[in-house]
Amino acid sequence: MNVIIIEDEKPSARRLQRMLQSLDLKAEVMLHSVEESIEWFKKNEHPDLIFLDIQLSDGLSFEIFETIDIKSAIIFTTAYDEYALQAFKLNSIDYLLKPIDEDDLATAVNKYKARTPQPKQAVTLDFNDIKKLLINPLDREYKKRFSVKVGQHLKLINIDEIECFYSENKGTYLHTTEGRNYLLDTTLEYLEDELEPQTFFRINRKFFVNINAIKDMVSYTNSRLQIKLNSYNEQDVIVARERVKDFKAWLE
Fold it and tell me: In a 10 Å sphere around its CB, with 0-12 CB exposed, 13-18 middle and 19+ buried, how is residue 232 labelled?
């Protein structure tokens, strides 16, 4: 997917670029003004998706569309909400207000992918994949313990001692009922198939939570939920908006 960012504030552009990288999107082109953008569109193939700020250093980005016929999909990223109606007259996917929330950004990207036909890829399965498909989910074995490194030693932690798994600074950690954090040599994506789904639920891109560790749940902004765990309190534990319905069903 070909993606560009048009944003006059370079720190904001770099932050958005990093957030997109975490969603496996590369935005290698970053433009910073109306004039620069018009010149770029005249000389280059138009991208699949544009992340577009509205108020640029030399005017409103709508001026670009008055000069160039752009067919790319657009996700607006702006600090101003008064341009929403004008924005949606264009080929707009979403309208995100700054500071951009990671879950809202992921939702907008998924909305774009859902509206855009994706190229079909050949499916290849190895023996382990086929075995997984043949195993009844109710019969399969899930991980019952994890080994973690503590200094020069290895420590075993049983699954019922774990409140949550989370990612931070490109590392994956588990948090125990005793309030300790341990680095794991794995990823949250790998854990998808290793954790018993009746006990652990992935509430967003960064967290799996143990149903037995949930102390409280409260309403949060943008139709999300905030989870309070028994001991983990180092960062907000938020159920992503698109996961709230499934999360409530999982609780029951």
Answer: buried
Rg (CA), the chain: 22
For the chain, the helix, strand and coil percentages under 3-state DSSP, each to the nearest 5: 30, 30, 40
The two most distant CA atoms of the chain are separated, in Å, by: 65
The model's pTM: 0.50
pLDDT in tens, 181-211: 999 988 888 898 899 999 999 999 999 999 9
Is the backbone peptide bond immediately before 99 cis, with ω within 30 degrees of 0?
yes
Tokens linked to 239: 């159920």
Return all residues near 78 (Cβ < 8 A) that are at least 6 apart. 53, 54, 55, 95, 96, 97, 98
Round to whole Å and give the CA distance between 91 and 89.
Answer: 7
Question: Are the C-beta atoms of residues 176 and 161 closer than 8 Å to each other?
Answer: yes
CA distances from 139 to 52, 136, 143, 197 (A): 49, 5, 13, 13
Per-residue model confidence as pLDDT tens digits over 37-69: 999 999 999 999 999 999 898 999 999 988 999
CB-based contacts of 33-36 (< 8 A; 24+ apart in sequence): 33/8, 33/57, 33/58, 34/58, 34/59, 34/60, 34/61, 34/63, 34/64
